[in-house]
Amino acid sequence: MPKKTNGEKLSEKLTFACPNIAKAAPKDMKEAEKFCRGYKEFLDEAKTERECVTAAIKLLKKNGYTEFDAEEHYQPGDRVYYNNRGKNVILATIGEKPLSQGARFNIAHIDSPRLDLKPNPVYEQDELAYFKTHYYGGIRKYQWGVTPLAMHGVVMLKNGKKVEISLGERDTEPKFVISDLLPHLSARQNERPLKEGLKGEELNIIIGSLPYDEEEVKEPFKLHALKMLNDLYGITEADFLRAEIEMVPAAKACDLGVDRSLVGGYGQDDRVCAYTALMAAMDVKKPEYTTVTVLTEKEETGSPGNTGMQSRALEHFMADLCEGFSVKPRDMYRKSMCLSSDVNAAYDPTFPDVYEKRNSCFLNHGPVLTKYTGARGKNGSNDASAEFMYEVIRMMEEEKVYWQAGELGKVDEGGGGTIAVFMGNMDVDTVDLGVPVLAMHSPFEITAKLDVYYTYRAFKAFYK
Ligand code: MN
Ligand code: MN
After folding, report:
1. Does the reported pTM lie above 0.85?
2. N or C: which end of the chain has fewer CB within 10 A?
């Protein structure tokens, strides 16, 4: 090695760059690869918030967590979970230090953009049977045509029985699709702005093409489809009014690239942070501070309702937990720290114009610490304090975690928010940390295995 020049030494001292992990620590790819095997399985098993909660609780039970009981006297190292209506789960490990010294919160969301069925979804038109949908969250509608879809959800029957539906995931099961025009006849559609490539009321899903064979029936194609659904699940048209059915991409998560360095799959925003948070929480068995991991839903529609982050569910759970230790919740919140674990937009070399390169996050550079989100002048953003940035960076660096800093795109290019603000409002120091994602909110999102693995490592450093 030639001797470093003064300029090189000074530059090392004064300048800063987040390294590409594949260059700085190429050996870590092996661990990342191993970690992501479980991650891909989780993506396939848990395509909706309900399925996420079910999968998470299965893992929690295996790892010594029991259902939270407000009357119970818990000791350091005890592990509990609270199932909020099957769509939101809170898990906690009691820390060595009293709750009056604060908890370590990690909040991630388990809902993803998708197409929900309307309350009255089944119809026929010109000899085809369809579902009407109402999209959920921010989607680019044109991306959802001509891609295989699967049907997931629950239906409450009139007799109070709950039917769970998952159709289109197995190779042997039928799938569903939204049609689009052929290029030969799309000259006029091509003139539409891209956001109207497919319009909301054109997101109609084909569910059948055979008629019920009887002259007297007015809508034989609709009836035939209803009969098939009734044969499978015992449901009727009226039951859709008591249902939550989500149409999601049927594709399985997989490796991408000849080097297998990337993961492709639906719903990685934000199940990638939910999975890494869950794994890290389960791995930290004797935390100094009580760890509380929240997997919430409805983030993509603003976190409303009793299972979203704006709900009091977490507050109530923490109140019960604190009461058991005779601690005032407000003393606990004031001293707590929170990672709002959500994805950020990875720099995309094909579309460089929307990014400000010096403040973007990149694939393979580790989890991205996002000080603030928002749009039009940081509007609605939590904007973490310098003091809290110091704490989180210190924790990651002490554990030799690779990480990077980033904003969401150029100033005034667009923007978005996360659930950080809701924890901030509860008097908790909060910052966003998560995985860089390409093609976010599309039916097939892209992450890098090294980033997924190092996000897990960052969460472990935080929980420890
Ligand atoms: Mn999102
Ligand atoms: Mn998200």
Report:
1. yes
2. N
Q: Does residue 86 contact residue 50 with C-beta atoms inside 8 Å? A: yes
Residues 308 and 381 reside in one and the same domain: yes
Q: Mean pLDDT in each 10-residue stretch from start to end of the chain (464 residues)?
A: 90 94 97 98 98 98 98 97 98 98 98 98 98 98 98 97 98 98 98 98 98 96 98 98 98 98 98 98 98 98 96 98 98 98 97 95 97 88 94 97 93 88 96 97 98 98 96
Residue 260 forms part of a structural domain: no
315, part of any domain = yes
> Rounded CA gap, 132 and 122, in Å?
7
Residues 351 and 341 occupy one common structural domain: yes
Question: Can you give the C-alpha Rg of the chain in angstroms?
Answer: 24
Sign of the torsion formed by the C-alpha atoms of 53, 57, 63 and 66:
positive
What is the C-alpha separation between 285 and 143, in angstroms, rounded?
A: 43
273, 357: one domain: yes
In terms of residue numbers, what domain contains 338?
Answer: 6-112+266-463
Counting ligands in written order, the one closest to the CA of 441 is: 1
Angle in degrees, CA 51, 57, 60, rounded to 5: 145
Ligand 2 centre and the CA of 323: distance in Å?
32
